[in-house]
Amino acid sequence: MLGRSNGDNDSQTSGVLIQYIRDISAYLREKDLSKKAVTMAAAVLVLTGLLGIHYREQGTLIPTVAGGSSRQLPIYCVQTEEPKIALTFDAAWGNDDTQKIMEILKKHDVKVTFFMTGGWVESYPDDVKMILAEGHDLGNHSQNHKNMSQISNSEKEKEIMSVHNKVKELTGYDMFLFRPPFGDYDAALIKTAKKCGYYAIQWDVDSLDWKDYGVDSIIKTVTQNEHLGNGTIILCHNGAKYTAEALDTMITTLKEAGYQFVPLSELIYRDKYHMDHEGRQIPDK
């Protein structure tokens, strides 16, 4: 979830703290305060934010934010009473295991979501078409895999729409799911994604497959994850060393636990929803 980390995956926690500071700075600039006043106010607010962080089990950092927060958040998970979960793959570099992954998914009749960079689309157009033909979601992972919070709004839009147009021209499909590279975002990115017709997507269960800890580590990290539950979004990577090898057992274990795999397009709510402070998408009553 927002601000939580699995084991030693602390990038998500630090990213949330950075996001707080950015939001505070932007707010103060909008108020056109003097430089001295901005500095003093920012210091107070940041300190307050830090004091609002408490520890949960295993020393996990959880930022405390009011339920009515107006911060712009991507979707980390979905509130649902049904045991539905979404498996996602980020495709940015390699392609050696794509065929094996697809075979395993077909064996289990599981539909997933692939988030692809523009470079990956350009390098493997036949695989992009194959993924769509097999009934999986095509998702946008930016053109050049940049830290999206560190570029201008116009560059953000260009990063999103460049790969969007490539996929549209190649397949005729209009993507609407966007995952920022590295999970890095700011409020401006969420707004830009919406402007481009996209839902910004994160995850609440990270397989940590990119750390190459091994097959058993991936399986355990996902299937025994404290955040695993109805509406979970699982992060995996196409091209990670052990992902394809771990996939069969991971899917089998989760199915035996009663979970049903659906692509993100079927898990998220398209309208009439709101977000809580942890990035959970909740349907309006």
- What is the N-to-C order of secondary-structure elements (H for helix, E for strand)? HHEEEEHEHHEHEHEEHEHEHEE
Q: What's the total helix number?
A: 10
Unreliable sequence segments: 1-69
Strand content: 15-25%
Radius of gyration: 19 Å
For the record, the CATH class of the largest domain is Alpha Beta
The overall pLDDT, averaged over residues, is 83
Our measurement of the CA-to-CA distance between the termini, rounded to an integer number of angstroms, reads 23 Å
Quickly give the CATH architecture of the largest domain: Alpha-Beta Barrel
The global form is globular
What's the main sheet like?
A: 6 strands, parallel
The amount of helix comes to: 40-55%
CATH superfamily of the largest domain: Glycoside hydrolase/deacetylase
What name does the CATH topology of the largest domain carry? TIM Barrel
Topology at a glance:
Blueprint: H1 11-30, H2 35-51, E1 53-56, E2 60-63, E3 77-78, E4 84-91, H3 98-107, E5 113-116, H4 118-123, H5 125-133, E6 137-140, H6 153-171, E7 177-178, H7 187-195, E8 199-200, E9 205-206, H8 215-223, E10 233-237, H9 243-256, E11 260-261, H10 264-267, E12 273-275, E13 280-283
Helix pairs in contact: 1-2, 3-9, 6-7, 8-9
Key phrases:
single chain, 285 residues, alpha/beta, TIM Barrel, 2 domains, six-stranded parallel β-sheet, three-stranded mixed β-sheet, 10 helices, 13 strands, globular
Q: What this model shows, in words?
A:
- There is one protein chain.
- This protein is an alpha/beta fold and 285 residues long.
- The protein is built from 10 helices and 13 strands.
- Strands 4, 5, 6, 9, 10 and 11 form a 6-stranded parallel beta sheet that branches. Strands 3-13-12 form a 3-stranded mixed beta sheet, with no helix packed on it.
- Helix 3 links the parallel strand 4 and strand 5.
- Helix 6 (153-171) runs parallel beside helix 7 and helix 8 runs parallel beside helix 9 (243-256).
- The longest helix is centred in the N-terminal third of the chain and has 20 residues, at 11-30.
- The chain starts with 10 loop residues before the first helix and ends with a strand.
- Residues 1-69 have low confidence and may be disordered.
